[in-house]
Amino acid sequence: MITMMGKSIRRYWWLFAMPTFIAFIIGFIAPFIMGIWLSFCKFGTVADARFTGLKNYQGIFADGTFLHALLFTIAFTVVTTVIINVLAFAVAYMFTKAMKGATFFRSVFFMPNLIGGIILGWVWQLILNGVLAHWGKSLTFSPAYGFWGLVILVCWQQIGYMMIIYIAGLQSLPTDVLEAAQVDGATPPQTMFRVIIPLMMPSITVCTFLTVTGGFKLFDQNLALTNGGPGRQSEMLALNIYNTIYGRPGFEGVGQAKAVVFFIIVAAIALLQNHLTTSREVQA
């Protein structure tokens, strides 16, 4: 039986949803539409924007740093997505087994995710430069050092967070299916790849989505760890856009056009990844 309170909520639901909807319009939709408009303009501030057509988008291809940042970001995202998900799944599988101190170690693995990206960048810069100093080098000596430095930092930060998601998925697996596989004589590798992983596809979908989008959007760790050095060779897309808008006067429109292209790339890749992994969920 529907209560009076339930009837009131059903009747005036729009009144409860209105504050959040207004905040969403002001905080996301309006700036997003304005950003698309500014990508077609030459401007110093929003008030003096002047329409210039596709000139800003032509400027993207004339700027060689954008293509390099895109390739660098793609390589970084692929590497970190694989490493984070494989290690997070392995750690989660280990912690779902009966072992002393599992709860404590889960907390320890998760803690790096609570630290801000800028702080992590500075801390790991000190650590990695201290190690490389023995060979007379630093993170900004070579793009490869900056690349793997970023990989180590992000993996160390994100593995614990993805581990929590995988633990939740592993703990919700139907025990009768696992017991049936054991009774049928399935070996541990067969159980893992033919039973557990297919059943874990919803968790894999979520973790893969988070790591892929997080890799493309990485900014603060890149800024603090290498700041794009040497010579902007370890500069990722978000930092490239930032440096274009705030580091090159007169190129604000080009930077905004880069941001729009950046959004399209990330959205397309995220939708493709989500489609591929969710289709495996159906098959499972």
How would you describe the overall organization of this protein?
The protein is 76% helix and 1% strand. By secondary structure, it is mainly α. The protein has 2 domains: 1-56, no CATH class; 63-279, MetI-like (MetI-like fold, Orthogonal Bundle). The protein has a two-stranded antiparallel ribbon with strand order 1-2. β1 and β2 form a beta hairpin. α3 crosses α13, α5 crosses α7 (143-171) and α7 packs antiparallel against α10. It is globular and about 70 Å long. The mean pLDDT is 90.
Q: What average pLDDT do the residues reach?
A: 90
Looking at the structure, the CATH topology of the largest domain is: MetI-like fold
Instruction: Give me the side-by-side strand order of the main sheet.
Output: 1-2
Estimated share of beta-strand residues: under 5%
Q: What is the terminal-to-terminal distance?
A: 39 Å
How many structural domains can be distinguished in the coordinates? Answer: 2
CATH architecture of the largest domain: Orthogonal Bundle
User: How many helical elements?
Assistant: 13
- Give me the count of strands: 2
